[in-house]
Structures are given as C-alpha cells and as structure tokens.
Amino acid sequence: MNGLIPLSAVALSAAMLMPLSAQAAVNDPTSIPTDESAVRVLSTLTVADQTDVSSDRKDHDWAGSADGRHAAYNTRDLVLDRDLSGTTHKANGRVATGTLDPEPYTGGIVHFVQGKANKAEGGSASATDGGIQIDHVVAYAEAYNSGLKDRTEEQRDAYYTDPDVLLAVQAQANNAKRDADAAGWMPSWDAFRCDYAALQIGIKAKYSLTVDQKEHDALASTLAQCPAQKVVSTSQVKSLAADLKSGGSTGDGQSKTYSVEDLKSIRFTATPRKGDYRSDELDFDADKVVSVDGSSLPEGWKVIQTAVVGPSTPSMGGYGTSLAVYDSTADVTAPDGTAVKSYRLHSTPFLDTAMTVAGAAASDGKAVIPQADFDKLSSSDLAVTDAPSIEGVTAEPSVTANADGTKTARILFVRNDVVIWRLKAVVSAEASKYSADDLKSLAFTVGGNPWDGNDLADPSALTWSGLPNGWTVADSTKDGIRTLAFTAPDGTVVRTVRVGTLHDADKAADKTADSASAATASGPLVSTGVAIAGAAVGIVLLAAIGIALAMASRRR
Fold first, then answer.
1. Among 371, 428, 434, 431, which residue's Cα sits nearest to residue 405?
2. pLDDT tens across 444-469, in order?
3. Nearest in space to 258 (alpha carbons), one of 226, 280, 234
4. What strand order describes the sheet that includes 472-478?
5. DSSP helix/strand/coil, 509
6. Which of 55, 344, 402, 445 gives 144 a disulfide partner, CB atoms 3.0 to 4.6 angstroms apart?
7. SS3 annotation, 107-141
8. Is residue 206 within 8 Å of residue 29, measured between CB atoms?
9. Strands 366-369 and 418-429, how do they pair?
10. Could you tell me if 494 and 486 are in contact, meaning their C-beta atoms sit under 8 angstroms apart?
11. What is the pTM for the complete model shown?
12. Coil, strand, or helix at residue 281?
C-alpha cells in the first residue's frame, strides 16, 4: 500500500485480528501494547508515504527534576538508572557511574563514567558521553515525519522525554543509526533484532505513528524469523538482553537454545581453499560453487543449499556490474528446526589477480613509472598476473588521464556483458633523476664562435656540442622559431631552448623561464629572438623626434 489507509479500515483490521485486550492497548495513546503479538500490532499500523521534513528536535531537551527530588536529575539519568547496573550518583543526584551489560545494540559491555569519553568501548573520542547515549528507539526525526509533526508542541515534548521511547545504548551504535527507521538500520547483535522490531512497533502503536512501505516490510521480514515475538517496552530490555546473552528466553516466549555461537566449527569448502568463515558474504578465489562442509556441523544440525542468481546493476558504459556473483545460499538449521543462520556463498575468480603497469607492479592501487613510460602509457602497457583462464571471460584494459596530472589504469573482466571483477591503479610519473646541472658541458656556437645569447636572424646557424651520453635532443622549427628539447635518458625533458624571430612579449617570457638554469650551463641557454622589430621601433622614434625638432626650429 502506498497511500494512507482509512482509519475505519485500520479499526476494522484491528478488531478482526486482535483480542479485545490488544485493541484497548493499541488505542490507548498512553501505553505500549506489551505482551501482544508484534505481528498483529504491526498490522494495525497505517502504511503511508513519508515526507522528509526537518524536525524541531532542537526545541526539546531532557526534562529536569525527573525524580521529583534532585534539581539536576533529568530524564537521561532516569534512563541510565533503569538500564544500567550498579549505578552510583553524585551529590546533585546525577548518575556518576554504571555498567551496561549487555549493551542491546551490539551485545557488548560499556562501562559508564559521567563526563569522560570512552572510545575503547564505543564512545566518541571527543564527546564526554561516557560511551553511552540515550537513544530514541524510534528516532525523533522519524517520529516527526510519521505523524508527530501534526501534534502540539507539548505532545512532541512529551515524546522526546518519554522513557517508553528511550534506551541507553552504545554511543557508536547510536551514531551509526542516526535517524534511520527499521528499513535503514538494525542492531548488529542479531539476537536482539526481533526485540528491537517489537520495540519499534510498540512505540509507533502508542503514538499512532505511520510506517512507510519499506519500513513495514523490514519489520515484517524480521518478525518472520520469530513469528511468536511479543511487543516489548524499553523497561524490559535490561532483563531481555541479559536472558539473550545467557541463552534464556526473549519477548517471543521461546527458548533460545541455539544461536550462531553454536556454529563456530562450521566450515565452507571451495577449490582450492578451505577455511573458517563466519561472515554473511564469503569470497573465494576459485570459479567453483562454494558449499558447506556438512561434517563440520554440530550433531543434529542441517544445511539446505540453494542456487541463486547474482546481482547486476547497470554501470560502466552499459555493462552490468557484478563484483560479487552469488552462486548459492545455505540455510543452517538447528535440531529443533530453527533457521539460525543463512549464508550467501559466491566465488570471485579474480580475487588474487594483480596488475602491472608498463612492467611495474601496481601496489595498493598505485603505480609509479618512468616519465617516458608515463607520457606514452596506453592500454597495451597493462597486464594481468596470476589470473586463471576462465571460459567466456575477457579482459578489457583502458587508460584515462586525470585532472591532477595522474592517469588511471583499469582492467575490467567481462563475462556476458557483466563486469565480474576489476583492477584499478592511479599511475604517477617518477621524479626525474636529472637536472640542468647535468648539462654543464653543453656548448652553443654560431659560425664556429661561441653563441652570446643574442637573437639570430637565421636560427639554423646555431649548433651545439658536449651533450652527455644517453641524452637526446628534439629539434623542430615552426613559424621561424627553432625549439631544442634536451631529454635525459629517463625521457624527462630537462632543458628547452627557443631561438628565432620572436615578438618582444614572447621573448621576455622565454628569458624569464630560462633564467633559473642558464648560469649552470656552459654558454647561454636562454631562449632568444631577433631584435629587428625593437630596432625598427627605435629608428622610427628617433626620426619622429628629429622631425619635431626641425619643425620647432622653423617656427622660430
């Protein structure tokens, strides 16, 4: 459903699906419908598109004197006292220390000390949050755009400081979550995800907030793994998380006898490697279907493996891109039939391939080659090493120039118009080992006499000698300008001399550019031009002055 669902339909849906006690809890805006089926309560929420409008979060703050005794004690302290163990207090009533064990979003432990950062356990390095932040389980901005923006400021303020909405969590996890709904973020602690979905549903039911379609589907998908899950409140999280960590029961009322911890011995096989892999997505350097080694599973466990089609997205000049081609999925079930873990298994044939650029190995995505090789770099200078030969796969190399003077070398591996792997490196030229100091023996002559650097009416009369071994010179003439480019053995052009009939502006610019190294060479290396134009201008000026003086003499 994309549009708003009529309230009458929602009420009818609730009446048909839920017992009377659940209906009363959902319709009461002051309560969380705890102990009711999370699946059923989700079905009562209105599914509607949401607009992304900036909220008025900055207008709200924690309520002071939340315990009615200490003026400094606020809602944050109230939640810390509720969710942490072993809390101590300062003289003004503020929570000073405590332990969050387990932390519900990660399953870890956070030791809280007010006013001190706790980077080691997930706190920020700069903020003094003690490693713990108070999270709006349904983020305030999400709630605002799900219906809260249409309520009064007092109602929004009540939501902001409602303990039913708030939970003490690891600062790092909360920063990662930001304003995301269930479709955009879920706790990294898998065991807590069903309870987290139930928390979201309960809060949205209490405040009659909507869910968009993606959010609804994400919540429904999570609950499909625990269909008996009950709605829970934030006040229950402390005990629920402790039960989860000890292998006890959660809000779904079912015994959690099995978990991913039971799969430590699981092994996956592919040619030519074997290994222990625990992640959801597994990379193998073989063009073979990856499979679960059934003998490595605990007694009574089963694996169901199914072939699937890999993802493909349009990219790279019309090619589809599939850098992770999934070959199969493997659902691992416990002896009681619970699907504990689902793995997506795929192969990446070119995982261990490497690229050379003009004979130089590309390391960490970079390559440095001699200037001469850099200047003429082309796709034919790119080569692949350690690449297995796989039927139907072609390598397509290319080189592109970058605005910063570097070049990007890229090789795409294509199969059926899908890029299944790619190598890329940013290529730079090596710093030259040569300079104008190496040209001290270079001498210039005109008609057998040393050249004094003056302009030449005939640039071809200039000759040179004393060029070091291994050096070359490129000699070209265009529009009366002769250009000599003296090139070092590594291909670097170290000196450029221009001689001929130049305009004054060009001549001055050339002389300025050459002046830095002119003194190091034997004989002048400055670019020159014939000063005929300058001399002609001088003659014209002198003639004009003479005429003016003669006319003045006649007037006398």
1. 428
2. 999 889 988 888 888 899 999 999 99
3. 226
4. 472-478, 481-487, 493-500, 528-529
5. helix
6. 55
7. CCCEEEECCCCCHHHCCCCCCCCCCEEEEECCCHH
8. yes
9. parallel
10. yes
11. 0.45
12. strand
